[in-house]
């Protein structure tokens, strides 16, 4: 994920959706009880592995009653 974040930051940016299955494309969602912890883990990973510092923006959305980060 760090490589993708770096690639996005070197270009025009981008969005990564967690909780979406690739094939077939469908919303599987994330556990609402641990989604904040996952957000913190991703933020820490980006901080530890990316230089200069990248400040990601996180948004939790609900699609088909499933949490997507």
Helicity range of the residues? 25-40%
Strand content: 5-15%
Radius of gyration: 13 Å
**Termini separation:** 14 Å
Number of domains: 1
The poorly predicted ranges are none
What does the average pLDDT come to? 92
Write the element-wise H/E pattern from the N-terminal end onward.
HEEHEE
Main sheet attributes: strand count, strand direction, barrel closure? 2 strands, antiparallel
- The count of strands amounts to 4
Overall shape: it is: globular
Features:
69 residues; alpha+beta; two-stranded antiparallel ribbon; 2 helices; 4 strands; globular
Task: Provide a descriptive summary of the structure in words.
It is a single chain. The strands form 2 sheets. The chain has a two-stranded antiparallel sheet. It has a two-stranded antiparallel sheet with strand order 3-4. It has 69 residues and is of the alpha+beta class. The protein has helices spanning 2-9, 35-49; strands spanning 20-21, 26-27, 61-63, 66-68. It has one domain (2-68). A hairpin with a 2-residue loop joins β3 (61-63) and β4 (66-68). The mean pLDDT is 92. The chain is built from 2 helices and 4 strands, in the order αββαββ. The chain starts with a helix and ends with a strand. It is globular.
